[in-house]
Please model this.
Amino acid sequence: MTDLFFTMPDNPAVLERLTAGLGDRAAAAGLLDIAYRTVDSPIGSLLVAATQAGVVAVGFESEGHDQVLQRLADRLSPRILQAPSRLEEAARQLEAYFEHRLSHFDVPVDLVLSSGFRREVLSRLREVAFGSTVSYAELAALSGNPKASRAVGSACATNPIPIIVPCHRVVRSDGSLGGYLGGLDAKRYLLGLEAQPAALTGLAT
Amino acid sequence: MTKPPFELVVAHHGATVLRVCTAIVGSNDAEDAWSETFLAALRAYPTLADGANLEAWLVRIAHNQAVDLIRRQSRQRAVSEVLANQPASDPPTPPSSAAAALARLSPRQRQAVAYHHLADLPYAEVAQIIGGTPAAARRAAADGIARLRRLIPEEES
Model:
């Protein structure tokens, strides 16, 4: 009876404003290990997450953003909040990329989720240019181990930062697509986007 | 051994923490208290035991933040009273009737009411936060509610 007697009205507008401001305040206080935001794209909503060192993950809608965040919490740190400002530049570049106005991502990345040979593969992969493709075997050679195309395949399949680290540019030697974490439709879309002639879309290089 | 991303903690408990902060420090300072509570919680989050009662943990942090805030304010008030040689005036914003009534309870009654009736913590948890026995916490909350019953009709008439 007393429980029903005393209540305090909720204030959803204040709560929303406080919640939205918390991420940037936490970042300013040096308490935010992982900031994230979402970016709309033609292949679905993308989750973009960054440590203080750089972009650490890009998640596809099909993976489930909640699962991607939980994985980051388990593997890196649960100090995770939405904080749009840390990701402003990455979001701006992703939007420009999908509008065919950007051919090279110039944002710091944090490859902390990959180690050893996989990390080496992902570093080399950043050098594969917009609009070109490379085979698993070629990327293995570039990474210093020509026989390791299977390992290159798993490095690409577990790439935590797709699109920005362009694992979609890796295809089979016979020209077929191979696999893609975001689904083959997404891979086909990205390769198609990059194959469009720049003259038609005003791509700045 | 998995902890949810802190964003989910804020989403699930943000409203309760705001109610508790409003109840114990008043509407004017509730927003600061809320932010300070979640920043302190974020700082400690990685070392929190898995499976801990998050709501009780957050209320305890809010309580500590409120105690700090009130201590800082009374120090500032003391200084400004000395400087101006007169008592500082009350906050200008008229609070809601519930908050106004709560402000007239003793701190202990106010805390017991907020933590039990607004945050739904059992008296055993409330007692751990405000000190004393669970029975004493129950009594403080009951006295607080009885006083609110007398105050709130006055406030609204």
